[in-house]
Amino acid sequence: MLQYNMNKHGFQTSAEYGDLQVSNQGEHGYRPYEMMVSSIAGCSGLALKKILEKMRITFSDIQVTANIVRNPNVANRIEKMYLTFTVIATDATDKKLEKALELTHKNCGMIQSVKDSIMITESIVKAGFNNYSN
After folding, report:
1. Do residues 3 and 67 share a domain?
2. Using only C-alpha atoms, what is the Rg of the chain?
């Protein structure tokens, strides 16, 4: 159970990792839509990582880009989300990556929780090890 307590700038909760401040003002905490987007992007990225490992695909990094469309006429709700996964790998075929993406959609609890409310579109891009530097 998480308990949220009101404070001067919003609400705060304590989770296993640490305190989380929720606020409508970005300088005082995470905005609710940022947490929604982060939970979906983070969950799907973690699911993809696990699936690639199970498929024995060698990769050095996964980057997730989330673009969202909000409706200002309906409480500024998130209506659409476009997730692009960039996988830095050399031995992954496009077919294997597409299969991994399909499994990611099915195995991400956050996507499954909102799939009837938010249209989520995913794509996956393969990049070679030399394309990015750490």
Report:
1. no
2. 17
